Amino acid sequence: MKKTIVALTFAMLPISGALADGYTDPVVEPIVIQQAAAQDSMPSAQLVMILATLTVFGAALSH
Predict the structure, then answer these.
(1) Of 9, 29, 39, 48, which is least packed with CB atoms within 10 Å of its CB?
(2) Rounded distance between C-alpha atoms, residue 24 and residue 57, angstroms
(3) Tens-place pLDDT, residues 42-56
(4) Rounded to an integer, what distance in angstroms lies between the CA atom of residue 44 and that of residue 38?
């Protein structure tokens, strides 16, 4: 009986030592995602404004 208790005690030593440290979060490298910058739509907006202005002035001059 004593040998069984001693054997179980020695069998439990590595298990209790592994659990004594507790849970630690795993180290995970962050994933870096690069996204291309969107082109500015300002040149096309300026073109629309210029064409609209020319159309209004052209219509005003034709009358």
Answers:
(1) 29
(2) 73
(3) 667 788 899 999 999
(4) 14
